[in-house]
């Protein structure tokens, strides 16, 4: 039910009146391209944040029975408790410019998301789950953005990503995908959509046979930047069990923003993919290209 409410919220966002054209996106684009001239610089990718307080009303304990059922651990209680910390580090590095004399640039990206049971002293405060996602992709930013349903189609990526949690046996989760990501600007809304195809594995080695049911064939993220505030909605469209994350950030000091996140549904992490999470989290996030801009991002300059 709560997942449906978030999906309705997405629809309502798309119905808001679109703002007039603005040169601000071109300014962000120029800043982005200037950074590409510098070697070995880490560029923002999917967001870097620290959430010291992350509360899950329905934690996944079934996956950890392999640990908690051991007689020697009987007095420690649950391994996955409701209150924990959550953090993500995500960046990309330019690997090659004008790939094969085309308009594509080649990037290496890396995203690591971790859930830390920092308040669980009985289990020595473990990192209960980390998801690692190295990727390689080619990006093209259109010099002449294409008009699309009242907005602009501005860029797309083609690439490959491996994602795993680094565990073994019953706790192992991993998969490999090829993908296409697209980016659009509608007024002061920034829309990203991804579609992917999972590279097949032998049944005997497949520890994620039903992952499409919970994570689906892609994802959607919609960002709205208005004055100092940024709202984001990420949709995880599992084929049978969807999930969603609603996020909000506000400036605290230069380069750092207050950050809040509400999560509901499935596919929130690899090991929790088939568990319906209900989470609220508070902390801080680093600014990105858009939130670091002097004025709200709106539409591309009219050509």
**Shape call:** globular
- Strands of the widest sheet, in order across it, are 2-3-4-5-6-7-8-9-10-11-12-13
C-alpha termini separation: 43 Å
CATH architecture: Beta Barrel
Q: In total, how many domains does the architecture comprise?
A: 1
CATH topology: Outer membrane phospholipase (ompla), Chain C
Helix content: 10-25%
- Helix-strand topology string: HHEEHEEEEEEHEEEEE
* Secondary structure category: mainly beta
Instruction: Tell me the number of strands.
Output: 13
Protein described:
This protein is mainly β and 303 residues long. It has a single domain (2-286), classed as Outer membrane phospholipase (ompla), Chain C (Beta Barrel). It contains 4 helices and 13 strands. The N and C termini lie far apart (43 Å).
What is the compact description of this entry?
This protein is mainly beta and 303 residues long. It has a single domain (2-286), classed as Outer membrane phospholipase (ompla), Chain C, CATH 2.40.230.10.
Q: What brief labels describe this structure?
A:
303 residues, mainly beta, Outer membrane phospholipase (ompla), Chain C, 12-stranded antiparallel β-barrel, 47% strand, disordered N terminus, disordered C terminus
What is the topological layout?
Blueprint: H1 2-14, H2 24-35, E1 43-44, E2 49-56, H3 65-68, E3 83-96, E4 105-116, E5 127-148, E6 151-164, E7 174-186, E8 189-198, H4 211-214, E9 218-226, E10 229-236, E11 243-253, E12 256-265, E13 277-286
Antiparallel strand pairs: 1-3, 2-3, 2-13, 3-4, 4-5, 5-6, 6-7, 7-8, 8-9, 9-10, 10-11, 11-12, 12-13
């Amino acid at each position: 039910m709560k997942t449906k409410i978030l999906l309705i919220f997405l629809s309502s966002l798309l119905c808001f009146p679109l703002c007039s054209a603005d040169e601000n996106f071109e300014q962000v684009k120029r800043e982005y391209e200037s950074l590409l001239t510098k070697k070995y610089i880490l560029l923002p990718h999917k967001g870097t944040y620290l959430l010291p307080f992350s509360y899950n009303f329905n934690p996944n304990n079934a996956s950890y029975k392999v640990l908690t059922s051991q007689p020697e651990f009987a007095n420690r209680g649950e391994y996955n408790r409701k209150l924990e910390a959550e953090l993500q580090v995500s960046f990309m590095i330019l690997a090659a410019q004008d790939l094969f004399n085309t308009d594509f640039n080649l990037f290496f990206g890396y995203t690591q998301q971790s859930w830390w049971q920092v308040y669980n002293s009985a289990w020595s405060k473990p990192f209960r789950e980390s998801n690692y996602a190295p990727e390689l992709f080619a990006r093209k930013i259109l010099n002449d953005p294409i008009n699309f349903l009242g907005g602009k189609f501005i860029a797309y990526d083609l690439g490959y990503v491996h994602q795993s949690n680094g565990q073994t046996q019953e706790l192992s989760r991993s998969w490999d995908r090829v993908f296409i990501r697209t980016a659009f600007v509608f007024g002061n809304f920034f829309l990203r959509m991804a579609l992917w195809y999972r590279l097949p594995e032998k049944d005997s080695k497949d520890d994620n046979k039903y992952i499409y049911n919970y994570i689906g064939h892609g994802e959607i993220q919609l960002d709205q930047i208005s004055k100092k505030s940024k709202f984001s909605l990420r949709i995880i469209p599992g084929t049978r069990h969807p999930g969603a994350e609603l996020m909000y950030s506000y400036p605290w000091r230069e380069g750092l923003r207050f950050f809040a996140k509400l999560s509901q549904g499935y596919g929130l992490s690899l090991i929790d993919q088939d568990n319906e999470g209900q989470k609220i989290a508070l902390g801080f996030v680093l600014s990105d290209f858009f939130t670091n801009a002097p004025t709200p991002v709106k539409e591309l300059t009219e050509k």
